[in-house]
Amino acid sequence: MLLTTLYGFAARFRRIADAYDGTAAESQELTELIDEYTRFIMNPHHQEIWTEIEQQDAREVMRLTAELREVSARCVAIMEKYRALHFLNGGEERNGYFTNIESGIEREFGSFQVNTASKVVMVGSGAFPMTPMLIGRRTNAEVLGIDIDEEAVQLSNEVLRKIGSRSPIRLLTGDIVQFKAEMKQATHIIFSSTVAGKYGLLDRLYALTSGQVVVAMRYGNHLKSLFNYPMEAVDETKWTLSEQILCSDQVFDVALYCKAQPKL
Prior knowledge:
- This protein has 264 residues and is of the alpha/beta class.
- It is 47% helix and 15% strand.
- It has 9 helices and 7 strands.
């Protein structure tokens, strides 16, 4: 029954993702679908059932998980574009998913708090840059948001201009290696949970960052992995898992990494 429901979610996500045409035509349906999916993922009963399913049919579960993760990430990116378009046209798109994300940003860095002197990089900042704006508003820290989606970056900059943000926020298109100076100066780096290959990027960041940098890796394991890319093992000669922030009320959890200290 649970798998049948998930196959249904996958089909609905695929249809809306394939229909996206740069307008907000499917906005209401996608908002309702992602809110429904968020509630499904956060249901403790579903999490218990999923744990049993994972052990029974690993091949089917792995295939379905990969499909749902990829297509739901596409739809989240589209929904952020819808939110930006609504905002730019005089409205504001609010839903349960965005509220869930925003409520967890304050605790994201655990004991490694962001302050006015911090320099933050957000990888996968999206079309409606919630995290950069919240960090900027609450701390006035310097924030660089990076995204490979040119349309998303264009929309996010239009949102910033309309808001009239006075915080030192820049939102740019590109790959991490294009921002070597910013990476070397960064005190905090955040990876969106829907960035594919983020652990490969983390490995590359080792040579580009200072010894004091803290990396917040948003991830989701088990049932949450249907909505987020999961935690992976790291090269322990490069990175140390300093803290895990497990959020029972959030769609993702956070792993904090620091540079590994050389052995004496």
